[in-house]
């Protein structure tokens, strides 16, 4: 009887896991979709709204504190190639749901001011932007949003030079002469 119960529990867990993965795939954003709008603040309490960035190409690097080093690799590469271009902007959007509740927001902001990331880091305290973009916790989720607010590129990957070259090709194709 105990073995049957274990098999039923494992089977139920496997079915739940498979259907959850299927739902995530079915709902994920596709190239050409409107990018979900957001309004977030950085460590300086400056408000950044995607809607107000129309006319620029926007590169979003979405991650959490456990993959911050990977997020920074993408941001460093971007800054090296595009920091002088005012028609292209990049942000790291940090999923702050994993921060323990006893850590004050002010402390986190103070640390970010001391140890500035390579690009502006926006704080997604409730994880709503990460949910809207269907990010994952293990790897950075990368998005390029064109000047009209449409998704032009999307991948979930740790830093890789080949993928970065693909990303640059998309960014370059978005530049008007």
Helix content: 40-55%
In terms of structural class, how would the helical and strand content be classed?
Answer: alpha/beta
Query: What is the N-to-C succession of helices and strands?
Result: HEEEHEHEHEEH
CATH class of the largest domain: Alpha Beta
Flag low-confidence runs: 2-26
Mean pLDDT: 85
Write the layout of secondary structure elements.
Blueprint: H1 2-27, E1 39-42, E2 47-49, E3 57-64, H2 68-82, E4 88-95, H3 105-114, E5 120-124, H4 128-133, E6 141-145, E7 151-156, H5 161-174
Parallel strand pairs: 3-4, 4-5
Antiparallel strand pairs: 1-2, 1-5, 3-6, 6-7
Q: In short, what is this structure?
A:
This protein has 177 residues and is α/β, with parallel strands linked by helices. It contains five helices and seven strands, in the order αβββαβαβαββα.
Notable traits:
7-stranded mixed sheet, Glutaredoxin, alpha/beta, 177 residues, 5 helices, disordered N terminus, single chain
Note down, in words, how this protein is organized.
This protein is an alpha/beta fold. It has 2 domains: 1-29; 31-174, Glutaredoxin, CATH 3.40.30. The chain is built from 5 helices and 7 strands, in the order H-E-E-E-H-E-H-E-H-E-E-H. It has helices spanning 2-27, 68-82, 105-114, 128-133, 161-174; strands spanning 39-42, 47-49, 57-64, 88-95, 120-124, 141-145, 151-156. A hairpin with a 4-residue loop joins strand 1 and strand 2. The longest helix is centred in the first third of the chain and has 26 residues, at 2-27. The radius of gyration is 18 Å and the shape is globular.
């Amino acid at each position: 009887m105990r073995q049957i119960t274990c098999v039923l529990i494992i089977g139920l867990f496997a079915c739940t896991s498979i259907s959850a993965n299927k739902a995530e795939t079915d709902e994920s954003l596709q190239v050409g979709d409107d990018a979900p709008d957001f309004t977030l603040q950085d460590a300086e309490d400056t408000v950044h709204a995607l809607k107000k960035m129309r006319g620029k190409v926007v590169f979003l690097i979405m991650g959490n504190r456990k993959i911050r080093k990977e997020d920074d690799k993408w941001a460093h590469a971007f800054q090296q190639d595009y920091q002088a271009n005012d028609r292209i902007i990049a942000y790291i959007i940090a999923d702050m749901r994993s921060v323990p509740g006893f850590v004050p927001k002010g402390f986190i902001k103070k640390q970010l001011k001391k140890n500035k990331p390579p690009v502006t880091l926006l704080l997604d305290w409730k994880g709503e932007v990460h949910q809207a973009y269907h990010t994952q916790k293990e790897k950075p989720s990368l998005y390029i949003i064109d000047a009209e607010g449409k998704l032009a590129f999307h991948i979930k990957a740790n830093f890789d030079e080949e993928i970065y070259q693909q990303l640059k090709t998309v960014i370059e194709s978005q530049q008007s002469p």
